[in-house]
Input
Amino acid sequence: MENNGCLPCTTLREGFPAGLRVLVVDDDPTWLKILEKMLKKCSYQVTTCCLATEALKKLRERKDAFDIVISDVNMPDMNGFKLLEHVGLEMDLPVIMMSVDGETSRVMKGVQHGACDYLLKPVRMKELRNIWQHVLRKRIHEGREFESLEGFDFEGIHHFMRNGQDQCCDDVSLFSLEDCISSTRKRKDADNKHGEREFGDSSSTKKARVVWSVDLHQKFVQAVNQIGLDKVGPKKILDLMNVPWLSRENVASHLQKYRLYLSRLQRQRDQKCSSSGTKHSDSNPKDPGSSTLKNSMNKQQNVFSTDNLRCPNNGLLQLHEADFRGTVSELNNIVPGPNMTNVSHIGLDQTFSSLNSEGNSEVFDCTLPTQYTWNQVPQRKLQDDPKSQSIASMDSSPSAASSIASSAVENIIPAQSKSLMGNDLGLKTQEFDASLSLIPDLEFYQQNLLWGGEGGFSPLDEDLHFFLLQSECYDDMNFGMHNIEMPEYYYDPGLIADVPNHLFYDSADYSLVDQSLFIA
DNA sequence: TCACTAATAT
DNA sequence: CATATTAGTG
Output
């Protein structure tokens, strides 16, 4: 009974949705990669296919090799709906359709054709996490194996979900489902206690503490800017950020911190402005310290820029920044973006006010990585404040910097990180405080290193990352390298994370990168 | 009920 | 410290 047919009960038996066998069909390799990544993050077993026909073939070969199918609607060889029909008829597996547009008629069509769900791209982690429910539901409906369900580990699922931080909407269905089924186990129980660990899925998921990397923070800031400081709320930000695994709580927490930071900043500013610090040591920052940062901060108002500055002391950093700077700019040039110019700066103030100068209403959609979007992004960049910072120097001497940068970057970075680490980070701290806005940690450095430095926001970043993020697809393309070292610490709750690193590391050739990425 | 956020816990 | 979780409020 349980095991025959379409779904091997094993899946359920194990107690987890983990291991759910998902067949993903999408003609766009990018999406395929993204989805695969995301699904794997959910501890699902993923099989991808870029052709509907191929998918069908696979399904036919082994009817019970999959638990669920996720298919794009638009595919060259076969319409997703067609595939849906076949699957429904032949193997009776739950099928989730997805597409970029959410046109009602289309969604309806999907549903009418038997899709158990219809996802809009970009798909969120949350949505994928919960797909197992369709499998379960189907089984229940078919009346099979309730028994096995009893043993089903709802607790685990809960945890799973919680961990994923989904708590809202989607879960509702889950709950209801659960309720119906399990009179046995009440969610209460599960909720109440479990201090448990993650399911042991292969990838032992860690606790999933969100690390606010530069990227993330940038996204966050961008969202804040778009919304307007006055009107921001975690929810809105979350929506704008469009980061699948992030929860409102995460954002709320960060927002809290951010506000704190802003207020502190504000305070500082007020109190002193004078420090025009005209001086600055340009290059000798020895102290990463405190003072330096502070001054810098004070001076200008641009938080962001300031932040960037935060580099600690070592020349290395400076270089970095410089490098990056150069790099960045280059990128910009390269990139087709329209507003690069604008980009230049937008200070805190603006931040506050909300700058949407650009008016890009569209948030970024990561949907298509390929398309570079930065243009849309309102960014601010850094700049500024040449003065205080040693780093500032970079500003002034871009040329040198850039040149150096390219070659140097790689080296530098690592070094830097090391230093930081070893160093204890006094730096870090300081910096951080100084700039909540960017780079709080080593990690930051490592990861992104620097865009931030730059000013914090590089236009690129967003999109780039995002796209990268979302897809690690680019692994393939990988500009040359793969992560060098970014290891553990930076594990990201979401899938995304690593990518940036590459970029950065690669920095040596941004230009290349760009081109490859964006252009074409 | 939901979202926000200050406070508090980890 | 940074982030998570809680609890009180609207």
The CA atoms of residues 343 and 380 of chain A lie 5 Å apart. Residues 209-212, 249-250, 253-254, 256-257, 428-429, 432-433, 440-441 of chain A lie near DNA strand C (CB under 10 Å from a C1').
